[in-house]
Amino acid sequence: MQSDRYGDIADLTRAVRVVTPSGLLVTRPVPHTSTGPSVREMVLGSEGRLGVITEATVHVRRVPERRVILGYLFPTWADGLAAMHDIAAGEAAPSVTRVSDANETAFSFATRREPSALDRLKSTALTTYLRHRRGFDVGAMCLAFIGYEGSPQHVAAERKAVGRIVGRHGGLCIGASPGELYDQKKFDTPYIRDFLLDRGVLGDVSETAAPWSRLTTLYDTVMASAYGAFDELGVRGYIMCHLSHSYHAGACLYFTFAFKPAAADDGLRQYDVVKSAIQQAFMDTGGTLSHHHAVGTEHARWLEEDISAPGVAMLQALFTGVDPGSNLNPGKIV
User: Fold this and answer.
1) Which of the following is catalytic: 129, 238, 254, 271?
2) Closest CA to 144 of 64, 239, 75
3) Per-residue pLDDT averaged across 102-126, rounded?
């Protein structure tokens, strides 16, 4: 979740030791190498199809002196995206950059812990200020989290640089309390799916990445496709989104959806209609099949659209060459 600053597991894993059908595969723990296509990355992206990792060398860093995640509010989703774009293009390197659309912002406020009387008073005062002094449409505003780590001086400098960018896009810092809530809810929220399933509601996620120039079109297309699928099925549904990771060239958009399936129809078929509409929208608007959840079996049907037929053939040849008996996690990816 802090790969904006530190990189993801593929970046942080320096070497692997892998049991394969043809013997032990070992790569050297070096900071960088230029020895053909990266075997280390092939293994890390293979979803178990090339062997069993028995040992890994992983890069670590010292625990930072200071860590803070601050909450911010933006007038609109467009303002939040523009601010994240400018932050990614700037010199600051936050550890977390996340902004929710209006639907997810409303969801976050609705699922917060039971507020105290003082919390309710503060919330009322903030809402009044946003409406009457800042001109916010509270129904359209978007909640963001930006995290900073390092020495106190480094954190202070980054907060100042990011604060200027946030201000240019009409944003407002609302302090560390929302950030503390984010730190907890990132572990709690995934369990909501099981909670919903127990009550007959289907819910899941789809995530993608695209260049900054395509994010708005991608977002609008996905939302329209999802609501179109709900209408096709004749069900009530909800979809929300957040930007979860920023890069200099683009960002990850992470969608969460849920709906109450029609009792007269098969629930899994209805789920597939909605999930397929979202994934196809990714492909149609220049996004990738998945930013970090990977392919598995559910996403495999779109892989050719993402990496082309020769790309799929290359992967198939790799899997067949390493594991001709298809004993290792068969059917995944391709």
Assistant:
1) 254
2) 75
3) 81
254 part of the active site: yes
Residue 51 backbone dihedrals phi, psi, to 5 degrees: 155, -175
Q: What is the pLDDT of residues 187-236, one digit of tens each?
A: 777 888 899 999 999 999 999 999 999 999 999 999 999 999 999 999 99
Residue 68: pLDDT band by 50, 70, 90 thresholds? Answer: very high
Residue 77 has pLDDT above 90, yes or no: yes
Cβ–Cβ < 8 Å for 176, 155: no
Burial (0-12, 13-18, 19+ Cβ within 10 Å), 298: middle
CB 45 within 8 A of CB 53: no
- DSSP H helical segments within 202-308, as ranges? 215-233, 267-284, 303-307
**What tokens were used for 194?**
């099981």
pTM for the structure as a whole: 0.93
